[in-house]
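Before a computer can learn anything about folding, someone has to put a protein's shape into writing. The outcome of that step, for a single protein, is printed below:
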Amino acid sequence: MSRLPVTLVTGATLVIALVLAGRHAPEALARVGTFRATDHEFRGLRFLTGETVLRTAGIGPEANLWDDPTPWVERLEKHPLVLDARVERRFPGTLVLTVEERAPVGLVPNPLLEPVDREGRFLPLDPSRFPMDHPILRPGPVAGGGGEASLVQRRRLAEAAEVMRHESDFWSQVSEVRPGPHGGFEVEWGQPTVLFRLSAPVELRRIREGMAALQDARSRNEGRSPRSIDLRFAGRVILGWEEPA
């Protein structure tokens, strides 16, 4: 009598076991050594290391592809540098971990310069280890004197900076963003410094109009730049040639 290959018998036994397990099949699979996560692939990492991701998620050497990934994702998303996380399976033994990190948009004096993301959250990043060519976001005096700027103040500036980032020619020469009068913003730009005055919310269309006016003014004045560009009034671009007040 011929014999079936051992691997075929084992596979058939596994299938029968899973059929009997029914809705508990994933739990049953998680106890099968064949599906142990022996490899890990990381995507989206810039500041975090793969080792940090595994440690934060709680993925150890016994992790199985059929383990419920929800606890891993929840732990990862509690990390101050993680905005979003996803864990996927790739058979026979690889976990693919995709992380969207929180990206710095500026540096806030606190009193030392600390990076913040677009939500104004301080990020645990050392600027000396991760060089950052980002503008200073200066919230201004804290109500009552002393203390760090509130999250609301930081978020307001960070959200404005996040919009500016989408106009690369402008963003590349922004050195400082701070609150302006009447709820707007003042932006120090370029060398020699030109003060852009913007209303809230910041609009890319207005920034582009200001940049076009700046280029036109330079072409008409042998490269000489205005000292300020006021974009707070709809449909108007006001050039200031004197030192801004």
User: Anything to note?
Assistant: The radius of gyration is 27 Å. Confidence is low (pLDDT under 50) at residues 1-22.
